[in-house]
Amino acid sequence: MDLREREMGLEEYGEFLLRRRIVPEIHAPHYVKWVRKFLEHATDPKLTLEERIEEYKEGLRKEGRWEDWQVEQAERAVKVYFHSFRDGKGLEARPVSRVDRDGAGRVDVQEVLAASRSLLRTKHYSYRTEQTYLGWIGQFLGYQGSIQKAGPQMEADGCKWGEGNSISNDQQPTGNVQGGTRRVVVDGQGVKSFLTYLATRRKVAAGTQNQAFSALLFLCREVLRLEEVDLETGVRAKARKRLPVVLTVEETGRLLGAMKGTSGLMAEVLYGGGLRVMECCRLRVKDVDFDNDLLFVREGKGGKDRSTMLARSVKERLRAHLERVKELHARDVAAGAGEARMPDGLERKFPNAGKDWGWQFVFPSKQLSVDPRGGKVRRHHVSDVALQKAVKEAVGKAGIEKPVSVHTLRHSFATHLLLHGVDLRQIQEYLGHASVETTMIYTHVVRDLRSPARSPLDVMREGG
Question: What DSSP assignment string belongs to 390-447?
Fold first, then answer.
């Protein structure tokens, strides 16, 4: 590539960054600058892209002119350029962690998982999505290894591998062992076979199978670059349309009355604003606006921000709770901890902001823990499992027979607003739904909660 072609490509890269909104406009010129510098200096053809990036980063550090966050920005700029912008053209567009195929077309399981993890983090997927995708990719690789090891008859009979089983990030699925490494063939037919197995043998719910489908689509299209793979023609679990479970106002009061402590406070905040469970767990102090009775949800479902209601009846308890959390935070800081995990990029730009009171979680965990993505000791937000368990216990105490979960409180919030005459569009904004059609499902539930029509049999026998 000559100088003119390279500069034209970089100009298109800058436009790509802005068009896709990958970075704020103010950062785009810096991304272009880092890539230009990489193309000028990291040119050894004998090195893989990953090796060239590492050599480039080391060179920047040796110059002594750049802060750590700038070196990390340079790394991300180069990865986005080759992995997303160049889109599979030649060596330079290969995934960040190389996945080679041997003579039989097999890939190494460890390399696939490492490449998937690296790319998920490059693209700033949430940690929970990362765990979910890697879990499904691991299950698929284990399934493929078992099928290929046992032969085609095992696939025809219906592979029993993986029923009730899951594979974590650090576990390696069973596969063909060749010289100490585990290698499997990954192709479109194998993916469709796995999805069919989930639907017909394990009989997973449609949502579960769609989750697996998304993970494997990411594996094939983004990690392994199998552009020719057609995944749409496999057997898919049939989605069923169900009305959400909703509590009456009286049942909601009984449920909340049966909950105590921090879990009870969380349930009231969640129901009072229609939050999803993780949105409640991830609330930060700065996102609670007591003066205007608002809660700000950051990076909710789909990466969207929104505001919703802070119930006035919960404000006094929430203020008292935050006073206790503030004392806990002061003790953490005094002990050399107290640094909350910051959103992508802000930790490098504002290295000390993580200890500011405003960035702390409203509902912190009782224990300090090691951040799996950075290795720092932090106080993370409380686990949603604790709230789910508390709600289940309260359902029993309240004598409610419905299949209630934490999410039921969100459904009840929307339905009760409709019962009180709140506009559907306004409820849509509170819930953060992309489409009003999603919110309209609650109109069907409302009809069931209003006074029902009398049966004509009752009218006849009761004499009108």
Answer: HHHHHHHHTT--S---HHHHHHHHHHHHHHTT--HHHHHHHHT-SSHHHHTHHHHHHH
DSSP output for 141-191? HHHHHHHHHH-HHHHHH---TTTT----TT-----EEETTEEEEE--HHHH
User: Could you give the domains of the chain?
Assistant: 3-93 (1.10.150), 106-223 (1.10.150.130), 249-448 (1.10.443.10)
- Other CB atoms within 10 A of residue 214 CB: 14
Q: Which residues are catalytic?
A: 276, 301, 407, 410, 433, 442
Question: 14, 449, 7: which is closest to 244 by C-alpha?
Answer: 449
Q: Mean pLDDT for the chain? A: 81
* SS3 category, 378: strand
Q: Structure tokens of 425?
A: 């569009």
Task: Look at residue 411 and tell me whether its pLDDT is greater than 50.
Answer: yes
249-257 and 384-397 helices, crossing angle to 10° = 110
Give all strands of the β-sheet with 294-297 in edge-to-edge order: 288-289, 294-297, 306-309
Between CA 88 and CA 226 the distance in angstroms is 10
Rounded CA separation 410/384 (Å): 15
Q: What is the pTM of this model?
A: 0.64
Among 376, 380, 377, residue whose Cα is nearest residue 359: 380
Q: How far is 303 from 166, CA to CA, in rounded Å?
A: 27
Cα–Cα distance measured from residue 150 to residue 127, given in angstroms and rounded to the nearest whole number: 34
Lookup: tokens for 383: 């686990």
The residue written with tokens 């950051």 in the block is: 298
DSSP 97: S
Residues 6+ apart with CB under 8 A from 366: 382
Long-range contacts of 60-69 (CB under 8 A, 24+ apart): 67/348, 68/348, 69/348, 69/349, 69/351
Mean of the pLDDT values across residues 238-259? Answer: 88
Predicted confidence at residue 157, as pLDDT, reads: 47
